[in-house]
């Protein structure tokens, strides 16, 4: 497709109002909810069925922040009982949460690439329109 990329369009059943932050989410996850929900609400790209995925995204993003704070305060390494210096266990947790948050962010349309994936525009009526045929 040439020129401007299509805008992400509201989907049928997209919620104009999303529920408040779930009380069970940890503080970092609540902060992420408050950060992303206004954009999702404005675009109306989330349905009621997508809310558990949004909660999971916020939980994963919050876990990344919590693990990063742990590493910042405790350091990148730990010393085992045998005196071996090893990478802090929070690295693995942070990596897994980061991987999951990136996957869910793409599913929810929170990344630039996923926002640009939209249905063909009205003036693009076939797959050969950009070949000048």
UniProtKB/TrEMBL annotation:
Residues 109-133 are annotated as: Disordered. It comes from the Bacteria. Residues 123-133 have a biased composition (Acidic residues). InterPro entries: Phage_term_ssu_P27. This is Phage terminase small subunit P27 family. It comes from Azospirillum doebereinerae.
